[in-house]
Structures are given as C-alpha cells and as structure tokens.
Design a protein that fits this description.
- The structure holds two protein chains of two kinds.
- By secondary structure, chain A is of the alpha+beta class.
- In chain A, about 65% of the residues lie in helices and about 5% in strands.
- Chain A has a four-stranded antiparallel β-sheet with strand order 1-2-3-8.
- Chain A is globular.
- Chain B folds into two domains: about 210 residues, 3-Layer(aba) Sandwich (D-Maltodextrin-Binding Protein, domain 2); about 100 residues, 3-Layer(aba) Sandwich (D-Maltodextrin-Binding Protein, domain 2).
- Chain B is of the alpha/beta class.
- The chains are: A alpha+beta, B alpha/beta.
- Chains A and B meet through α2 and α11 of A and α1, α5, α6, α7 and β11 of B.
Chain lengths: ~400, ~375
Amino acid sequence: MDRLSHEKIPIWRDERVLKAAAQIISSLIVLGFIFWGIGNFLEITQQRGMALSYEFLNEAAGFPIKESFIPYDSTMSFGRAVLVGLINTLMVSAWGILFATLLGFLIGLMRLSTNWLISRIALAYIEFHRNIPLLVLLFLWYFGVFTQLPSVKDSITLPGPMYINQRGFYLTWPQLSETGALFGISLVAGILLAIITWVVLRRIREDKGKETYFGRVSLAVLILLPLIGWFAAGGAPLRFDVPVLQGFNFQGGLHLTTEFSALMIGLAMYTAAFIAEVFRAGILAVQKGQIEAARAVGLHYSQILMLIIIPQAMRVIIPPMISQYLNLTKNSSLALAIGYQELFAIGKVTINQAGRAVPVFMLIMAVYLAISLLTSIILNIYNKRVQFIER
Amino acid sequence: MSRKLFLALNLLVAISILAAGCGGTQTVEPTPTTGSEVVEISTPEIIQAAGYGEVLQAILARGKVVCGIHTELLGFGYLDENGRNIGFDIDFCRAVAAAVLGDPEAIEAVPITAADRGPVLQTGEVDLVTRNMTWTSKRDAEWGNFTWITFYDGQGFLVRADSGITTLEGMDGATVCVTTGTTTERNLATAFGDAGLSYEAVTFEETSAVYGAYEEGRCDVATSDKSQLAAVRAGFENPDDHVILDITISKEPLTPAVPTGDAQWLDIVKTVIWALINAEEFGITSANVGEMTSSENADIRSMLGVEGEADWGYTTLGLDPDALARAIAAVGNYGEIYNRYFGPDGIAFTLDRGLNNLWTEGGLIYAPPIK
C-alpha cells in the first residue's frame, strides 16, 4: 500500500496537472478570442479613419436640448451635452422606478384580491401591458394621449394654478428667494438630523428596552428645525414661481414636458405590470401556515401583512425587482422615438454632429453599464440585509 | 495554494499572449492585397491606391447597387402605391444601377435615418447614400466622399397660417419641431442664437414623428430644408392651413455620397450625375436617347458611347461605352427627373426650379463636360 501511494503518478494522469492544463488551454482560447476581437476592431477603426479618441467631447456641441436639469446651451461642449443626457436618463428612470413600484405594488395586491372584479381588472392591466411592445405603448401615450390634450390657448386650468396642455404640465413651484439660503440649509439639516435621531433612538430602545419615543422625537426635529430657519431667514424665504402665458408658451413655474411625462408614465405603467407579478409571486411564496399561525396568535390583518407577510415576501421580491429596475432604466433609451432627450438620444445627435460613432457608442455602453452595476450593488446590499432576517 | 498558483500561471500566459500580440501588430507591414491585382487587370499605367475598383467589383458580383435611402419623404425618397421605392434621390441611385449593371431595378434600397448616414458611409455598408444629405466640409472629411450637388436647398420654416408668424423675430419663445442628427438642428441654434431669440426645440429621430407632432400642435413651427417642408405640406390634410415662410437660414447643397477609399467608384457616380445634367443641356431625353446616337454633335455621340467615338473615361472606370446612355434611357435627364416629381405636373408636389435650373437658365446646375 505504501509503495503504491509513493509511486510517481505519470504526468498525463496527474489530476492537478490535467486541471491546470485545461485551465490554461481554455483561458488561451478565451483570451485569444478577446484579443482577436480587439485587434480586429482597432485595425478597422484605424483603416477607416475612425480613431478612438474622446477629444471631440471638448468641442462646442452646437445643438439645442429642450430640457435640462443643469444649465446648458448650444455653445457648451459635447461632454456637457452627454452629461445633460445622463441626468435626464437618471431623472426619468428615478421617477419611473418610484411610480412603477407604487403602482406595481397596488396592482399586485389587487391581483391577489378575493374580489372577482378587482382581481380581473388587475389581470387585464397586467396582460395588456405585458403583451404589447413598450415602443408601441410609448407612441400610444405620446401621440394618442398627451399631444391630444388641448392647445396652449385652451389649456386646462387646475387650482394652484396648474396648467395642462399638449406641451406638458406647468406647475406653480416654490423657489428659494434671495434670503432663503438659511431656510434651505435648515431644511436639509432638519431632514438629516431627523433620520439620525430615528436610527439612534431606535437602537437605544432595542438595546436597553427603554421607550425613547423615537418616532415623535424625530418628527419634532423634522418640523422644528426648518421652522426656526424660516423665521431666522426673515420674511418669506420661499416664493412661488407661477407659470404665465407669454407669447407662444407658458413661462416660469415647473414645466414637465409632454415627452418627459409620456415617457415616464409609459415606462412606469409598463414596468408596473411586471412588478405586480413579482409582488404577487413574493406574497404567494409565504407559506400559508405562517399566516394561519399569525392569525392564531391573534394578530390583526394589517399586522400580519406588515410583520409576517411583507418581511418574508421581500426575500423573494428583491432579486427579480433589481432586474425590473434595470430594465426600466435601459428601456428609457426608447425615448428617442418620442423626442425626450436622454443619454441615448443625445448620444446619437453627438454621433451625427461630431461624426464619431464608435467612441460615442462605447461611451454610452460604459455609462449604461455603470448605472446598472451601481443600481445592482445598492439593491444587492439591501437584499443581503433582507435575507438575514430569514429564520 | 495550488489554486493561487494556477491563477498566477494563467495571468502570466495572458500577459505573454497580449504582449506577443501587440508586438505582432506593430511589426506587420501592410501587405498589398486584392488592390494590386485590380491594378494589374485594369490599366497598369495608372498608379492606383488600395481599394481602387473594389466597390465596382463587389457590385458586379452582387448584381445590385446598395443605396441608403429615405422611404418617407415625399418627392425625394418614398414608396408608390405598389410599394416601389421612387423619388428624386432614388432616381439617381437607379441611374447609377442602369449605368453599371444595365438595369435600373438592380438596386437594393436600404432605408436609413438621418443619424445613420454617417455610420453607413464610414463602415461601407452601402455603396451610395442618396438620401437628402447636405454636403459639409466636416462630413466630407469624416463620413465619406461627396459626389456632385443634385439639389440646392435651404432651411426654412413651416408655420400654421393663422399663427401670425411672418418673421424670424416673430418666432421668439416658440416651440420648434426638428429632426435630430441633422444640420438643421445646428442651423436652428445658430440662427436663433445670433438673433438673440429664445425657443424650445422638440427633436425626433423620425421625420414622420417631427411632422406628426407639428400637425398635432405640439410645436408652433417645424423647420427643415424648404424642399422637405414643401413635401410635407403637400401631404397634409389641408395644405392651405400651413405656410412656408420666406426666410432661408442656411445653404443646403443636397449631395449623394460614397464611402471613402475607392476613387474609381467616386468617379463613376460623379460621371453618371454629370451625364444626366449634360443630357439636359444637350436636349437628350429618355425618349430620344436612341435617335441622339446619330447626332451631328461629336460630344453627344461620345457621351452616348457610339462605336468609334472618343472614350469618355469608361475604360478606366470599368464601364460599358453606352453606360451613360442606359442611365439617361432609364431615368431621363436631370430636368426630366426634376419635373417628374416637382414639375407643374409632378407626381409629388410643385416646386419652382429656382436655383436648380440649369446654369444656362439662371440656375446653379452645372456639370463638367463628358468627354
């Protein structure tokens, strides 16, 4: 026995050597393929004078962008234009995600309802949105709904005042006045401090078992601090920017354009259908016995929902939810068709004006990849916390 | 331990491959390929760059000329009731196909958007772009080679007749619909910026979406090349409700273009366009091209490739002597093409010839002689 085990195994039968060889060969193939791809790409771009350079990002863009959340005009650079596009993408995605989640949650609960009518309405909603391509839905929203609203002169007036016409929503919006800086700071400080108080006091209660009234205390902080700031600022720190019809359009106030609204609502409603199914799956995944047990110990229905069902459903809900959020963000690139200028639309204009297709496409891909990975990381951290609750 | 060792090994291998590869590409000299063969076959006395003649060879092998075109622009590139691609731009593509392959139907019409025009030229996906494209220095430098101006256009504004807008200043604060990825967008920014006027631009990728949004009332103004505006206006339900303002804010020389790298192909397309213009000067039409072969004028006989007449360049261009005659027979001369779509009895809409008259008629249409 000893002799056998000490006998030298031939190299071609040594498992470790074989494994190493297989690893090296497979990585050679993969690397060779990647290298060939990159080499081919570089050669072709060289040949066709499409050299990979990003210097053009400093040149003046020269094209207008309708809506921008940072200052922009057509004399600014291509780089700035792309940044405007990125912020527009993030803006429409963030609002889209918020509304899609709320609506999806509602539809999901409706779908679970024991009421036949409510459940069928939710089913119809889900099937309608899941079985029609998003682009078609966006066209429907844009050309079928939003541009069919009354013209500027016949705008619908709502109290506020708020005006609705085929060019979008014009809202009266508060703005910090010249003396409002102090109030602005106190508002931000109040929110931050309220969160900190909530977390700290709650931990103290959990650790020491002493009631700290964390809810009431943080609410007081949230109200009192900005209130102090309001009076300290003296006079009215906020003034209301009211939209006024001047010439062709309303000026002032907050303008949510038709394109933004159509895209945001289209994306939110489409994604909500998928999110509703995710919610339903998550809630159905909670074992019936859990609910029966909760009922047996005398928990109220809302308590069962908040303490038993939702925490356990979250485990199932979060991972598919991440991909729905990513889908929504990526789908926002369809905005091109209905005239909302987000990252992809501005990228395409940049390609045309600067004539650099490959670098711009690579930039766009890198940015979308970064957004997606960042979203995944954040939600995965949250997911891990939710998963730990499992018992 | 061993796992780390494997990783290290793999990394080493990877680095060495990359290093070897990089070294490789740097030392490899560009070797003469198919280009040189072509040189030997055609005319050895002319020194020709790599790529020369490749497009023509590919077209002959394929039996089709691939053209990047518009499918939604009345008059320039659109579909007739049978779904056939027709239009002013398409006819130039057909003329080239008739000259090269003898058949004006031997085209492969690839619909492209305004923003696609650069990339399809840069990658050589199409042989020819005849899609309502303005010639600019930057596009010539970066996209491809522009051939010959076929239509002189300028950017204008389309407004509703009851809007009361008559001047550029009258548009202050207006919402303007515009196609994205065009010179139009930039001209708009420049014109309004210079005049110190504010505006809101709503941009779309598709031309149909631009005018759809304008017609619905999303915009007060639509801006584009005047010919395009005329085309769109003619297609509206009530054309009289809309007016094209008498303002021109840019020069838009519409020009077909070819990918860079094949000088022969560039010359072929240019010569075909020149021939169509020369044909109008000489009074050669699709109807009388046959009779004209017995013309008194030696230049006409040469252009039509009558046997025994001088070579107009076809030997070097790799074409048949009667290639230009076939092009004229297929689509007619420049004036015929223009009138087919924009003339008094044009099938698209009526557009005054203006700058697009022959130079002898006070216009700008002028081409080098075919001889």
